[in-house]
Amino acid sequence: QVQLVESGGGSVQAGGSLRLSCVVSGITASSLRMGWFRQAPGKEREGVASITSSDGALYADSAKGRFTISQDNAKRTLYLQMNSLKPEDTARYLCAAAVAYSSTLEPRWYTYWGQGTQVTVSS
Predict the structure, then answer these.
(1) What is the pLDDT of residues 13-55, one digit of tens each?
(2) How far, in Å, CA of 77 to CA of 89, rounded?
(3) Where are the beta strands (DSSP E) in 17-111?
(4) How far apart, in Å, do the first and last CA atoms of the chain sit?
(5) Angular region, 32: left φ>0, alpha ψ -120 to 50, beta rest
(6) Nearest to 50, CA basis, from 23, 30, 69
(7) How far lies 2's CA from each of 13, 23, 27, 66, in Å?
């Protein structure tokens, strides 16, 4: 059974930092596409960052220069370091995975999803 479990969300003030983690289990593949997405109430789910071992990292314009996606394959954990947080970053952040070789920020190209972790940034 595939499981993705996120943690690390919370409430911070604008300018603060958070590091999200996503532990992946139940997937065995030569290459995994991993991604972070976010969804605010009343808005569509949007891609924040994506990474594969062969394709490197891909970021949404809103995340470039502030967020860093990384993975620890030994721990089967995906991370999202978020710095200089803004109120508009407030959303539920979800981890996603697919068996693939290229990165993408399109939600439709991901097969497995976690439940998400809430991030709230106050001004």
Answers:
(1) 999 999 999 999 998 777 889 999 999 999 999 999 999 988 8
(2) 22
(3) 18-25, 32-39, 46-52, 56-59, 67-72, 77-82, 91-99
(4) 40
(5) beta
(6) 69
(7) 34, 11, 6, 30
